[in-house]
Amino acid sequence: MAGSFDESGADLELVGVTKRFPGFTAIENLNLTIPAGSFFALLGPSGCGKTTTLRLVAGLEEPTAGRILIGGKDVTTSKPHQRPVNTVFQSYALFPHMTVLGNVEFGLKRRGISSARELAHEALRLVELDHVAGRRPAQLSGGQQQRVALARAVVNRPALLLLDEPLGALDLKLRRQMQLELKSIQSEVGLTFLHVTHDQEEAMTMADTVAVMNKGRIEQMGAPEELYELPRTTFVANFLGQSNLFTGDVVSTEKDSMTVDIAGLGIKVPRERAQRHAGEVTIGVRPEKLTLHTAKPESTAGVNILGPGTVIDVSFTGVSTQYLVQVPGLPVLTVFAQNMVFGPVAEPGAEVYVSWRVEHGFGLADEPEPEPKFAGDDDTRTIAVQRRQRLEDELDEA
Amino acid sequence: MAFGAFANSGPDLSAAAPRRRSYVAIILLAPGVVYLLATFVAPLVSLVLTSFKEPGGDFEVGEYVYAFRWENYAEAIGRFGEIFLRTFGYSLLATILALLISYPLAYFIGVTLRRFPLWQSLVLILVIAPFFISFLLRTLAWKAIFADEGPVVSFLQAIGILGPEDYLNGTAFTVIFGLTYNYIPFMTLPIYTSLERLDLRYVEAGGDLYAGPAQRFWRIILPLSLPGVVSGTLLTFIPASGDYVNASKDFLGSTNTVMAGNVINDMFFQSFYPLSAAVSILLMIAILIPVVAYVARSGSEDLL
Q1: Of A196, A365, B2, B169, which is the most exposed, with the fewest CB atoms less than 10 Å away?
Q2: What pLDDT digit, counting tens, does each position of B26-38 carry?
Q3: Can the keyword Cell membrane be found in this entry's annotation (chain B) (predicted)?
Q4: Which among B199, B208, B212 has CB closest to A86?
């Protein structure tokens, strides 16, 4: 492959990959196929194994078990420099003793490409940094360094480009610009992109396919819209946007919907949007799908109604207003309402009803857990508190 | 940059510091300045003056008066030119050998042992350990080891590398060996300091960009540890050039391995003070020229 460019992207295949470090397992039996030319995002919280996956693909770590194939070729035992892969590192890792140009042409020169210098200048023009080609990385701002790192990887036209949170340090405007740039590079050259990020918005706007990773496994994989509209697990429902989740027993099953008993109310969920159809299930609905009513709405077929409840908080976010509604016997509900009128439609303390169309609900696959853990905002802090609680409980038992 | 392992040139505060605080700086600097004047500038001036002295009126041995006798220098170069060349050659060879031994050692301690801090400290102590014993004793110990009836010579004679009449002590081999051995810690420590701070992510990035192990070493690891290499080579080469112990006939040398340091020593104890001083000045200049050229080159970017 010396002296030549890859004409197109290559499939990436992970077969039963497991990676154990002393003391913990980072990745457990991971199977993943990323088709050539796709823009694939691995999304997950820190410590979920996504960066380890990336390092395994780059060859910087060796899997404990399993195989890695790039373009059908087994590269499990190949060294990093033998793989048709380039990485944009999270820390940029720009060589401090070389100029920007020296950094960008490094890979080309190692492969013996004669027009290294022109290609490097071209790549720098692409990221609008050709005017600093003679400077050292330390003389550039964080955002500029990140673009150099991008140019240094892209210039090699690898079959597979790995991006480790590459847009983290950029401001919003530059971020948008680079996102577009990346997309256009990707579609222009047909490279396969594997993008690792904890930023759900970045993953959803850029990738064709998103895999949500948690604790070394892929929880769910699919197109961004599919993942968002039909999450299959509690983790996905809460990590990718916000969700209102309820737990209750299935009381009856109809032709294309099922009814779940939530605090004495019969809530309907479409059958094909539910993962489980019997016993105790967790169902949910996205906050923006909810409608707030100041008076009890007429019950209609195809609409779920909860209430009466009390508005406990109202926060204005510009395009929408977020209401927190407490319905007795249920976790706090989050409602996003478009600001169709000036000012909120309900003040804190007001009595309200909440409704949503049956087809917007979804049912999750998780086994419900005894604790009432499905509070609306399962942010990292609550997760941390819960984890500590669980550890303390374990200690008490021991 | 060349002395990066010793001193970090911190941010330039001179512009920001208020002017009225400057007396603090003067007070803090004063001891250092006085020390340098008393122990470096004054002896140097005295040495230069001595090197031009001529024999005193009554021609008694060791009596000299101030003059401008530049012939002292002509005599030094004429009599000892060959010794200067030998000094330079021995020191250079010892420096290169010390570098070849120290770099892998420093890499092992600074990079390979990074994940085992206890082992790292332990091996580092082993590098410094010889300093706990007087270097005169250590050098004498090598003299005993390389002695004509000693184990090394007997062994080399037994396997036929050395003839029955051959010996090691007093040859260029033992002198260069002694120099290399004695200065290895001075080479290892600065290189270790550089390598210990080496960010391995650069090496990973090099691998990701198609550089094989050799390319990663030459293009990333070595350039990034260059400050340590420059410091180490200077710390070895400069004292080795002035060394008068290893090459002395009482230790590992003989009359065939005399170095500039030995000449200075001998001339001084034979009371030829001006000649001894002239040799010292010449040695200083002879070392300074290549060192300045080396530092200037390593400080510039083309070496990187």
Answers
A1: A365
A2: 899 999 999 999 9
A3: yes
A4: B208
Token look-up 């809460």 returns A238
Average pLDDT, chain A: 85
| Partners of A195 in beta bridges | A41, A163
Classified by CATH at the fold level, domain A12-227 comes out as Rossmann fold (3.40.50)
Contact A97 B212 (CB under 8 A): no
A248 in B contact zone (CB under 8 Å): no
Helices B71-110 and B273-299 pack at an angle, to 10 degrees, of 40
Closest CA to B76 of B40, B41, B52: B52
Q: Which of residues 342-371 of A touch B (CB under 8 A)?
A: none
- The chain A residue lying nearest B202, using CA atoms, is A93
Assess B219–A contact: CB distance below 8 Å, yes or no. Answer: yes
Chain A positions touching B212 (Cβ under 8 A) are: 79, 81, 110
* Cβ-Cβ contacts under 8 Å, A152 against chain B: 209
Q: Which DSSP category does A279 fall into?
A: S
Q: Which residue has the higher pLDDT, B255 or B12?
A: B255
Give the N- to C-terminal CA distance of chain B in Å, as an integer: 12
The count of CB pairs under 8 A between chains A and B is: 59
B166 has pLDDT over 60: yes
Q: Name the CATH code of domain A234-370 (choices 2.60.120.560, 2.40.50.140, 3.90.220.20, 3.30.700.30).
A: 2.40.50.140
Q: Which residues of A are less than 8 Å from B197 in CB distance?
A: none
User: Measured between CA atoms, how close is B197 to chain A, in angstroms?
Assistant: 13
What residue segments make up the domains of chain A, in order of their start? 12-227, 234-370
Domains of chain B: 70-303 (1.10.3720.10)
A174 touches B: beta carbon within 8 Å = no
pLDDT in tens, A28-71: 889 989 988 888 999 988 888 888 999 999 999 999 999 999 98
Closest C-alpha among B185, B42, B57 to residue B124? B185
Which pair of structure tokens corresponds to residue B179? 């120099």
> Are the CB atoms for A129 and A148 separated by under 8 Å?
yes
Q: Does B208 contact A91 at a Cβ distance shorter than 8 Å? A: no
Min Cα distance B107 → chain A (Å) is 19
